[in-house]
Design brief:
It contains 10 helices and 10 strands. By secondary structure, it is an alpha+beta fold. It has 3 domains: about 90 residues; about 100 residues, OB fold (Dihydrolipoamide Acetyltransferase, E2P); about 45 residues, no CATH class. Strands 1-2-3-5-4 form a 5-stranded mixed β-barrel. The chain has a 3-stranded antiparallel sheet with strand order 9-8-10. The longest helix has 25 residues. Keywords: Coiled coil.
Length: about 290
């Protein structure tokens, strides 16, 4: 089974679909969207695309009130456990996302509005592989509803795929937002989404310094932080040294110098030496590369 095929267990999937169907029948009873639907059995006779107007009504009206009214009235005579699960859907999220990654059990949906957030999403109806191949990622999607279900996040089976091909600077921007979202919130795997973790100045500075793209994007934030304390200034120089070490390692290997010792301050080499067999030079004093 490919990563894109990962779904809820068969039992959980059926439970979700049953509960969601009862909620949609209730919405139809309230708004008379599809005349011939009065029961779940009636609803199941329709194709998914035929039910889209009904599903959209759920999210275009006062969604929270509809869910709460359904739970209070319990027209389907659901158990307390099932009612509790439906009540949790008041923590739903709808909108546009970018599908940026597949993982072993889910896909990562990026909401790149401010602040950006990433959600680990499981399919409850249609496997992601039926929608797009992993090689097509990132993929922009719209009309998405994310719902908490059994301590996971699922989408309800309806999804709009936008005909946009990401490339160049836009693709880079998506990667930037993805990294920032992970830094600020982690990958969110349950709803409601947690509050942003408070980061120390040192953690923020290391994130800003982690790669060239970040150093350019957060240049003003870096300058502000490094001036706050001697410790942050030390971290700044340490991270700059690491960055220069990575690029210098590639340069040395291209010159055929597979082993060398250099001392770096920021992006400047202040001393260097070839490795001599039996040398007692220590890693504390030098940065070392081995091809």
């Amino acid at each position: 089974m490919s990563e894109a095929d990962r779904r809820l267990s068969e039992e959980s999937e059926q439970r979700f679909l049953d509960l969601y169907a009862h909620l949609l029948v209730y919405v139809n009873d309230r708004f008379d969207v599809i005349e011939e639907i009065e029961t779940v059995a009636d609803l199941e006779q329709h194709y998914t695309d035929e039910l889209l107007p009904l599903r959209n009504t759920l999210y275009n009206e006062s969604t929270t009130d509809l869910i709460e009214d359904f739970v209070e009235q319990n027209p389907a005579d659901l158990s307390e456990a099932d009612l509790e699960q439906v009540a949790a859907w008041t923590d739903f999220i709808t909108g546009e996302f970018v599908v940026v990654r597949y993982r072993e059990d889910d896909a990562i949906f990026l909401d790149w509005t401010e602040p950006p957030k990433t959600y680990a999403v499981r399919p409850a109806r249609l496997p992601f592989a039926d929608l797009w191949d992993e090689s097509a990622l990132p993929v922009p999607v719209s009309s998405v509803a994310l719902l908490p279900f059994e301590d996971q996040i699922v989408y309800d089976g309806w999804i709009g795929i936008k005909n946009i091909i990401f490339g160049g600077s836009l693709s880079t921007d998506i990667d930037d937002e993805y990294e920032e979202a992970k830094h600020r919130f982690g990958i969110i795997d349950s709803l409601p989404a947690p509050e942003e973790d408070e980061k120390t100045d040192a953690e923020e500075l290391r994130f800003y310094m982690k790669n060239k793209r970040n150093r350019e994007r957060y240049a003003s934030e870096i300058e502000h932080l490094r001036e706050k304390s001697d410790e942050l200034e030390r971290i700044y120089h340490q991270e700059m040294g690491k960055a220069r070490a990575r690029s210098l390692g590639r340069e040395l290997r291209e010159l055929g110098l597979n082993e060398a010792y250099v001392a770096i301050y920021d992006d400047r080499i202040i001393t260097s030496a070839l490795r001599i067999r039996g040398s007692q030079a220590t890693r504390r004093d030098y940065a070392r590369w081995e091809g």
